[in-house]
Amino acid sequence: MADIRVLIVDDSILIRKMLTQVLEAAPGIEVVGTASDPLIARDKIKQLNPDVLTLDVEMPRMNGIQFLSNLMRLRPMPVVMVSTLTEAGAPVTLEALEIGAIDYIAKPQIDSEKALESFSRQLVDKVKMAAGARVRPLQTSHQVRFSPQPLAAMADFKRWVVLGASTGGTEAIKAVLSRIPAQCPPILITQHIPAVFSASFAQRLNQTVEPEVLEACDGLEVRPGRVIIAHGDNHLTFRRDGQTVRCVLSAAAPVNRHRPSVEVMFDAITAVRPAQQLVAVMLTGMGMDGAAAMKRLHQSGTLTIAQDEASSVVWGMPRAVVEMAAADKVVALEKVAGEIITMTQL
Predict the structure, then answer these.
(1) Which of 42, 84, 106, 153 has its CA 20 to 30 A from that of 239?
(2) Using CA atoms, how far apart are residues 29 and 330, in angstroms rounded to an integer?
């Protein structure tokens, strides 16, 4: 198999050198070139035909977002954003994912050999994953607000919804929720996302979909009409408070290398809600986080949905569910909301 050809785009010579060294040291990856700004990158893409691009946001002559938008419209290709992950910068990175970037990684604060090793491992994994991911050409339709499907009266809800996602998940979740009406069952979501992103992600969704969308916090009530997004650095678990169910944030160790972990949320929900009164959904993502727990839910009476391969950016987590025979339905992304609406009334 041919090596993955990577073009690095960053205005910092130090970052370009570091990324080159990390990627060149990995088997199966070749850095075919670097560029200090998007205009140079545009020419090098034509010359070198890379498989994957790493892209900074803040650059001279043209910012990374404008360049990404042009790229995804004219020559769609896998892009991994390498940027400073701050709360202030979160909306920009989320916008990059909305435009079509596959994934993102924080520019490293290299203060130890362990930190460099962790960054290197993540970068290599993300570049290899991006090379095999499905790229979405940029269309104006990504801003279209879909009409939610009709739902029975709230009294007819028989099941709550728990949903997991990772790579490609921010846009997949948005696509699902855009088809869900304001009067919906409780929807609980774990998306693999940094702590500085989860609040911005919830706020962006809350502004564009009909249900209320909130970032999880200790004591937040789980109730109809509310979508809760797991906090970026805490597992999402639950407790009963009389007749009310509330969120509990857990800083326990990562599970399947993730915190928040889909596995943890899927297991935790049965402490406050019978499995027979749940719908579990697995959307696009790399790895297997949540698949084993979804199998346990399925065996206990939970109705389950997995996103299909053709509509997934990365068919890892849904594939694991399918291979474990834990999915009642395997459907395209645009059909997930309809299945949720049907299943919550069964």
Answers:
(1) 153
(2) 33
Tell me how far apart the alpha carbons of residues 325 and 200 are, in angstroms, rounded to a whole number: 35
Over residues 29-80, the pLDDT tens digits come to 999 999 999 999 999 999 999 999 999 998 888 999 999 999 999 999 999 9
Going by C-alpha positions, the residue among 193, 254, 243 that lies closest to residue 221 is 243
- The catalytic position among 51, 103, 289, 308 is 289
Three-state SS for 75-92 is CCCCEEEEECCCCCCHHH
d(CA 41, CA 271): 52
**Bridge partners (DSSP) listed for residue 226:** 212
- Catalytic member of 36, 83, 120, 166: 166
Per CATH, 4-131 and 148-343 having the same topology is answered: yes
What CATH class does 148-343 carry?
alpha beta
**Residues 26, 28, 33: CA angle, nearest 5 degrees:** 80
The domain limits of the chain are: 4-131, 148-343
Picking from 261, 212, 256, the residue whose alpha carbon sits closest to that of residue 235 is: 261
Residue 112 tokens, joined: 């130890």
Q: Looking at the whole model, is its pTM more than 0.70?
A: yes
CA 172 to chain centre: 8
192 a catalytic residue: yes
Read off the pLDDT of residues 188-227 as tens digits, 9 standing for 90 and up.
999 999 998 999 999 999 999 999 999 999 999 999 999 9
DSSP letters along 95-141, please?
HHHHHT--EEEEPP---SHHHHHHHHHHHHHHHHHHHTSPPPPP-GG
Q: Is 112 a catalytic residue?
A: no
Active-site annotation holder among 10, 37, 120, 192: 192
Q: Tell me phi and psi for residue 332, to 5 degrees.
A: -65, 155
Residue 200 among the catalytic residues: no
